[in-house]
Amino acid sequence: MNSKEKAYAIAKTLMFDKDAFSQWLGIEILDLDAGSALLQLTVRPEMTQGFGIAHGGITYSLADSALAFASNAHGIKALSVETSISHLLAVQSGDILTAKATEESLSNKFGIYHVKITNQEDKTVALFKGTVYRTSKEWLS
Cα separation of 118 and 98, whole Å? Predict the structure, then answer.
């Protein structure tokens, strides 16, 4: 099994299929590999808040899912220990958001990832950084 096949086996079958929240968000997996993920969702009216723009938790949740899929795709169970997000542009209902997670650093115990979230006009709407702790447990035995 190559790295892409392994990433899809872990993210799709073992994680996403059991992740009711990511499914409710309408997340689509566009591409996966060890240490990277490309996800997309369309912002729906029920995802907006009182100012008429998407709740910040929507972009955060999309980025968090991208972090989870990218960091676990190596085959070692990984859990986030620290995350942060900077919201750069308002997101509207109907916007199509794409999250691209990139592995910046990886050791036996920790991984650091950056996730860039863009809209359908390829404008950056948010930047996310996540640190994960890599356990000693494997996804596929």
Answer: 5
**DSSP label at residue 123:** -
The sign of the torsion formed by the CA atoms of 136, 65, 105, 8 equals: positive
**Domain around 79:** 3-138
Domains in the chain, number: 1
Pairing mode of beta strands 110-118, 124-138: antiparallel
For residues 92 and 47, the answer to whether their CB atoms sit within 8 Å is: no
Which residues neighbour 74 within 8 Å (Cβ) at sequence distance 6 or greater? 34, 35, 106, 134
Report whether pLDDT(141) > 80.
no
What is the pTM assigned to this prediction? 0.95
Give the C-alpha separation, 115 to 127, whole Å: 6
Per-residue pLDDT of 91-108, as tens digits, reads: 999 999 999 999 999 999
Residues 87-93, mean pLDDT to the nearest whole number: 98
Residue 10, pLDDT above cutoff 80: yes
* CATH code of residue 41: 3.10.129.10
